[in-house]
Amino acid sequence: MVNSSISAIVKLGNIFEEACSTSENLSAEATLLAEAAQNCHIHNPWFTQVNILESYKAWGKALSQEKVERFISNYDQQNSHTPKVVGIISAGNIPLVGLHDILSVLLCGHKPLIKLSGRDGGLTKLVTDTLIGLEPSLQESIVYADDRLKGYDAIIATGSNNSARYFEYYFAKYPHIIRKNRNGVALLSGNETSEQLALLGNDIFTYFGLGCRSVSKLYVPKGYNFNAFFKAIEPWSHVAMHHKYANNHAYNRAIWLIDQVPHLDNDFLLVKQSSAIASPIATLFFEEYEDQSAIIEHLNQNLNQLQCVVSKVAEAPFRVDFGQTQQPELWDFADGVDTMKFLKTLR
Q1: Number of CB atoms found within 10 A of residue 26's CB
Q2: 80 pLDDT exceeds 60?
Q3: What CATH number does domain 2-180 carry, 3.40.309.10, 3.40.1010.10, 3.40.605.10, 3.40.50.300?
Q4: Is the pTM of this model over 0.85?
Q5: Please, which residues bridge with residue 320 across strands?
Q6: Main-chain dihedrals φ then ψ at residue 206, nearest 5 degrees
């Protein structure tokens, strides 16, 4: 079954890429995905067509034949164990956020039992139905839970810090991966090019900044001038046209004005100095530094809050290039926890 899953997953990647194309002759599968991208915002306004297509594009790149084979080559391909039922509790912050867990379970020869967030809008179900259409034998393996999960052998759960405490208590006796809140940050030297700062805009605004890999904070040299940064991210001003994003911007601006909080505002992003890492929607925190090595040490001490660090500095932990936070590879595991290794230990 694993070999057939691999073939179907690679074909799914091709369908994702096709669904992003402007061709008028799409396959039936790609047509359904393209229509979902157009209509999903009716259920969840954050799931705009642009954002869903961005997710399709990222998955299309990640699920190439070469990358899937490279991914699975890191693990023992012998599946002599009895397939286990792995409960997957998925968040709904960005499109297809739980797909990596589902595919990992299938690639390890196990069976995903999926509990989706109500914000998903049926998008993940459509993708797994497409996968089953490509490989009908998966019909018996992929199950969705309408209510509470039952009959599972292990758990992968993603949620907030508050829900994680519940998950850790409730699933304590089962093998599990419990994920909490994490964020992307950027460590700037002050010598970034306009092109790099523009790419940083992608890391901040893609998915409206709702992803766990979205950059929520900048570490900048003392006295950093934000003018070049604001100029570089100007192409993202259109986010202010989205009503929910605009409401968040207006709300946070009002609060900061009332509280007389010093901040910068370019009419679509609020920026203020803060030691916190996670910032509200439509805002960005920053922290100044004088000693870059001290900031590297600070980041290493706070790895449990970080998903990735955008930087030119080679020593930065979880480092990714500018513009790449929302283009993770299959082996870029959430929270740095190797999901495949965990799944391979289930017996």
Answers
A1: 17
A2: no
A3: 3.40.605.10
A4: yes
A5: 310
A6: -60, 135
